[in-house]
Structure to design on (433 residues):
């Protein structure tokens, strides 16, 4: 009988079995080449849970014949980590193999603890691989960050999760193959969506359902839902699917209904969802759906995050509830979100368009001789600090991405842009020299 959870048993043993993260470790990528040439340096993997951070670290160590030593910043002290590190140099001299120190949730170590890694990373005694779900630029000290390469892992696509689940279902050695189970119509899609980008969640749901049904069965969507309702849900303990709940909260906020929004918030918290996951989604909502119609919404969202960090549960949850009410009642505008999307599209499709000479900086005499900065109009010297100057590359002159809505504070920006566009028209109407 297998004691280890299915998610642990199905960890990839080779890069051929590793699904997802092709941008980082796919064939021909810089990291993959470094692994194949045994030229790996210290690094940080930043990404959501279940995206392969630990597995990837293990594969790197195995592929380079290194010694893999995992620690958790939650349960391990820096003293025991340093004891292993101190032996790494001797280990390399005796065996020719390098030591990979893997620190899960590295952001949990404080500044002084992180400082302890510096001399060993600098000397190359170890290859330090940190894993974090938090932004490392905020949580990891700059001295360590400057010596480590950061790789951003993305949540797995539904197709990737489905591939992992399918393999686990058929694998007779480590998976559920001996149970001779199959998936009825829609069941695989259900698991892929319920996993929410986390392979571990998908495999946990599959294993729980297989245990519930027994061998020689066809798993249906109804079976999967019933497993959730019996308390085996991946996120919430009351049986409702996590993905549907966060969607309900988001859409209730967008629809301006504070009461429904509070209900879905309560359902998620009561079901066991981590409050900071909800806050992250609310921060995104504040900038994506409320936007510049009420810029204070983003400030309030970050304040709610800080309040929860300071108070914890259940007191800190009131700050989240206040935020939910405010966001639901706030004026809504996605104008900034759509404008940025269009700007990104042009940046990607039109290549490296040159910066116009008149808005280039000219710190050297050579640059001045090449007309860098020539003709630049300093807005503060003009009435209302506006000029008819062009700031776009010529190929994009006159482009408009941002179309504000006449709601909330964004209505003021409509007035400004009307005035600004009058100056831009002057430029267009002027004959070219």
């Amino acid at each position: 009988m297998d004691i280890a959870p299915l998610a642990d048993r199905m960890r990839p043993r080779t890069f051929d079995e590793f699904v997802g993260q092709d941008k980082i470790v796919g064939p021909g990528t810089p990291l993959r080449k470094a692994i194949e040439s045994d030229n790996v340096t210290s690094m940080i993997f930043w990404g959501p849970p279940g995206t392969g951070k630990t597995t990837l670290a293990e594969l790197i160590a195995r592929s380079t014949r290194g010694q893999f030593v995992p620690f958790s910043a939650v349960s391990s002290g820096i003293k025991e980590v340093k004891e292993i590190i101190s032996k790494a140099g001797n280990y390399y001299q005796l065996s020719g193999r390098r030591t990979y120190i893997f620190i899960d949730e590295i952001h949990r170590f404080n500044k002084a603890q992180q400082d302890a890694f510096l001399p060993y990373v600098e000397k190359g005694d170890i290859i330090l691989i940190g894993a974090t779900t938090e932004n490392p630029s905020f949580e990891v000290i700059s001295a360590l960050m400057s010596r480590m390469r950061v790789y951003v892992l993305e949540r797995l696509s539904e197709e990737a999760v489905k591939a992992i689940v399918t393999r686990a279902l058929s694998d007779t050695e480590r998976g559920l193959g001996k149970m001779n189970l199959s998936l009825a119509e829609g069941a695989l899609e259900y698991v892929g969506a319920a996993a929410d980008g986390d392979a571990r969640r998908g495999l946990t749901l599959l294993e729980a359902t297989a245990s519930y049904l027994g061998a020689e069965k066809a798993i249906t969507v109804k079976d999967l839902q019933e497993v959730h309702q019996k308390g085996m849900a991946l996120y919430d303990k009351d049986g409702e699917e996590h993905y549907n709940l966060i969607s309900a909260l988001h859409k209730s906020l967008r629809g301006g209904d504070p009461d429904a929004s509070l209900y879905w918030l309560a359902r998620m918290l009561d079901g066991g969802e981590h409050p900071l996951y909800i806050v992250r989604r609310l921060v995104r909502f504040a900038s994506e759906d409320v936007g510049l119609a009420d810029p204070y919404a983003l400030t309030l969202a970050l304040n709610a995050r800080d309040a929860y960090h300071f108070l914890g549960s259940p007191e800190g949850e009131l700050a989240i509830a206040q935020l939910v009410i405010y966001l639901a009642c706030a004026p809504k505008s996605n104008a900034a979100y759509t404008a940025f999307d269009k700007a990104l599209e042009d940046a990607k499709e039109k290549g490296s368009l040159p910066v116009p000479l008149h808005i280039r900086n000219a710190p050297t005499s050579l640059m001045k001789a090449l007309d860098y900065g020539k003709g630049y109009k300093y807005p503060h010297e003009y009435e209302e600090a506006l000029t008819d100057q062009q700031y776009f590359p010529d190929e994009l002159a006159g482009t408009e991405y941002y179309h504000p809505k006449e709601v909330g504070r964004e209505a003021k920006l409509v007035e400004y842009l009307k005035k600004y566009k009058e100056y831009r028209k002057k430029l267009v109407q002027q004959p070219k020299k």
